[in-house]
Design brief:
Helix content: 25-40%
CATH superfamily of the domain at 31-144 and 186-247: putative glycoside hydrolase family protein from bacillus halodurans
Largest sheet: 11 strands, antiparallel
Mean pLDDT: 93
Distance between the termini: 43 Å
Number of strands: 34
Length: 754
Amino acid sequence: MKKTFCVLLLLSINYVLADSNFDMKWTTMPSSYVEGAILGNGEQGTMIWARPEESLHFDIGDTRIYDETNRLPIGKFILKTAGKRQDFSMKLSMEEAEASGVIVTNKGKIHFRALSVSGENLNLVKFKLEGAEAIAIEHFSLPGIHTGKLRNGIKDVTGKATHTIIDYSNLLYAEAIAKTVEKYKPAAEFRIESEGIHSRLVPLKQGKAYGLNWTLKKTGEREYLLAWRTDYTRENLNTQQQKEWLASKRVKLRESLLETYEQHFAKHAKWWKGYFEKSFVSIPDKKLEAYYKWQLYKVASATRKGKLPIDLMGPWFRATNWPKIWANLNVQLTYLPMAVANQPEIADTLFALIDNKPELFIEAANKYKSDSATHARAISPYTPGGFSWEYGNFLWTLHNYWHYLKVHPDAERTKTKFYPMLKRGANFVLHNCREDENGVLHTPKDISPEYSINKIFPKVEDTTYNLQFLRWALSTIIHIESQYDLQDPQIVKYKSALAKLAPVLLEDESGIMIGKEVKLEVAHRHYSHLVGLYPTKQMDLNDPDQFKLAQTAVDYWINLPILNSWSYKGYSRTGAASMYAMLGQGDKAYEQLKIFLKTYGTANTMYIESGPVIETPISAAASVHEMLFQCSSLDFITDNFQFFSGVPSTWSDVSFDKLRAEGGYSLSARREQGELSAFKLIASQDRELKIFFQKAILVKSSKHGKLKTESEAGKHVLELNIKKGEVLTFGDQDKFTQPVSGSNGEMNYHFGLN
């Protein structure tokens, strides 16, 4: 018998789980960014919702479209109906990435199905009408002016604080937007309609432009198809060339419409089905499981192989002060879970940018660009930014890259792409370090990301954030040079710097200090002083003193008095969950995720601070992974594994299949009645491996036969030199993809965000 679990949300929006596959359902109209149905194909996307005066609308989003350095809003399509809306229902299918619904009016019904078509520059909405209903489509356009200028223009006219200006399509803002256009005088747009296709050209500076082509086409008796595509060029085109370019894209749209909605849907659904088959996770808390799986959906909606890295919004635009890739925690958290979720092509888009456009990071190093690289706190994928503070940021991005290469090993790329860029990243920090009279190397005066007291950001030497990322970078450079015998004459410099590097500053009450003479004294949403524990895993938790220090630091940090809504944020809770999982304290990890969902959960899992910040919900997926298994390698040589050491005591049954771990392993495991009942581990390279178990077991090896665990310091350990292709198994191998039963728990989502 099939088991069905329902997870109720406010506004009659819910998740439904059937056969372990979640869908979102709405029984009332979504009315904001954190409520709408989200579709995306890795570059373009739409969010489906409505303002009070609308029947329905479809936002237009494209991650490529920038002015000089900032993402641009485009606008939306508004559905015009003959009747007045009386009822509404909608479903968003996770595994097919299709939204479908019914609008009931006093004239009839409008059925719709919508896609951002996978693998194509195409968005489709199919309408079928009943009764006396009739429809039309209106394009609400926004000018080619970046969001910061639009927000400030609205603020100047209306007096509203910028963080309250969330929807540029609000009719109350029309006058302010018109005045902003008058102020900045963007180049005149070009619009035509030809053979039923509407075309809009938005010229930008230096010959750049974006284009929108769309049509509402009758496809059958009382059936219509809305189709659109957006395009972007950074070529320096003159006016005539821009018009010819737009016309060529109009032809592409017409060619796409030679296939029916159903034909596009069949290919689209096949891609999504294959995507979700690459890994599997099932936990007893079905609300958290739903949340986890929707993060995988969002990432694949926001980026694909060959596409841009995910910024703070993905392909769903909302008014924001942060219209690009943010990088003092943000993009780093976004990219942490996907390599483990066995999605290497999607997980790679950030690192492919570093490989393919190294000049973005080299130019940002300014006077040190001959041997250095860095990035600003915010990154444009097209234009180098200028560095200002937070020396550890680029090294954190490179740590993500290293994590990816450990999960999906690639020796050639490690040597020829990653190693030179890591040296450049370390060099930039070293150029700014100071060696004192005792030969101790100090990182430069800097803030620790997000830490302030009374809105003052202390700027001091030796912030733990900078020290720990530099320590990791230097250690990793030395390891790679040795592992591949690169004979790098510069290695002496890095060994010397590591030996001289100042120690992390400690303190009895808080454990780990923010930086020189700066103790953590007030609630700190960012865990910048804890990066030596997570994510860099440089603390030896088998050492009782190191474990005690980590315990003290995490407990103190996450339990300080909450002064205001900025004391802690969603990523504080997901970070704490991951740290408690590392400490083997699953109940505490789970409690942090429950606080996260209760405080920050929304109908569609999108997340807002004063603007969209996509990384926080996605980081919850990484926290789930950290709870399911732990893998670390302090010495770079031996991989240390534990299964289910971070799950809460209430999760007696848990299962996962085909996740990936550092060391290049494919992992499947199942826990039943509170104990490990089965696992499968496949090695992709020769490694030294230690697996820790709760009790003695007998493991089968495809190369060595039966292997028995040995006792070591009161633990049961399997230790071996595993070979490429070797498979270790234990228990019943047929249950990894069998969902575990569970309940919704006691957590309620709500919409009480800023």
